[in-house]
Specification:
With 244 residues, the protein is α+β, with helices and mostly antiparallel strands. 26% of the residues lie in helices and 36% in strands. The model is unreliable at 1-10 and 190-205 (pLDDT under 50).
Length: 244
């Protein structure tokens, strides 16, 4: 059956961008805050429109933050490639022994595609009638007062049988049908960058994206093998070099 829900195409795309503390407890929360700040500054410096959809914080830092970005396609593809595990190694401020700790922060970036408005025409609605059942008296059980509407392009079905009048039920069913179609219009399809976190044993040492050795001011890209030493500049949002 043909579904008339077609993604809109723009020069800009919308992206859901999540930063989640993973393994490492307080350290992971603290390091998630570092990434949160880094990406926020990057968005601001590059005039990327963004809003924070939700943020879950505690006294140690960030548990989870979700951004929604409006970004040009080329840069958007680079942001999507930020998905993966970001490993942090440093002497933890939470450790009395000042030992090196390893913690993980996950980034999950997804493209959001919204749909065109669905036009509803009477010719696309199939209507049928049926006898009511249950409470309501013999009139309802013998006369076809129940109404069933099918929107042929989407296959959405709406029924009403609560009233004694066929006309009233038809009005109710039609209203329900429009509501359900409207829900499809407002729904967003999320295309995940081929990552199913639920099937992974851990967010830890697998799927590494980048390693940040904070005490030695060294960042290593685990995909390319490239290393970067300008730690302060990068953590302050100048990340174009490392995401290119």
């Amino acid at each position: 059956m043909l579904i008339l829900v077609v993604p809109l195409l723009f020069d800009h795309i919308n992206i859901s961008f999540e930063v989640n503390s993973s393994e490492g407890g307080k350290e992971a929360n603290s390091c998630a805050s570092i990434l949160y700040r880094m990406y926020s500054k990057f968005f601001e410096k590059n005039k990327i429109k963004y809003k924070i959809i939700s943020i879950d914080e505690n006294s140690n830092g960030i548990n989870k933050v979700i951004f929604e970005l409006k970004i040009n396609k080329d840069l958007g593809e680079k942001i999507i490639n930020e998905s993966g595990n970001h490993r942090f190694i440093r002497k933890s401020p939470f450790s009395k022994q000042n030992k090196l700790h390893t913690s993980f922060v996950t980034v999950d970036s997804k493209v959001i595609k919204k749909h065109k408005k669905i036009e509803v025409y009477d010719k696309d609605i199939e209507i049928s009638f049926f006898k009511g059942s249950g409470a309501g008296g013999q009139h309802r059980n013998k006369v076809e007062t129940g109404v069933r509407l099918i929107h042929i392009p989407t296959g959405i079905v709406s029924e009403a049988v609560s009233e004694r009048s066929q006309k009233q039920n038809r009005e109710i069913a039609y209203k329900k049908l429009l509501e359900r179609i409207n829900n499809i219009e407002n729904e967003e399809i999320i295309l995940i960058k081929e990552k199913d976190w639920k099937n992974k044993d851990s967010h830890g040492f697998g799927s590494k994206r980048r390693t940040y050795k904070l005490d030695s001011s060294l960042i290593k890209d685990e995909k390319t093998g490239n290393s970067f030493s300008n730690m302060n500049k990068i953590l302050n949002g100048d990340i174009m070099e490392i995401i290119s």
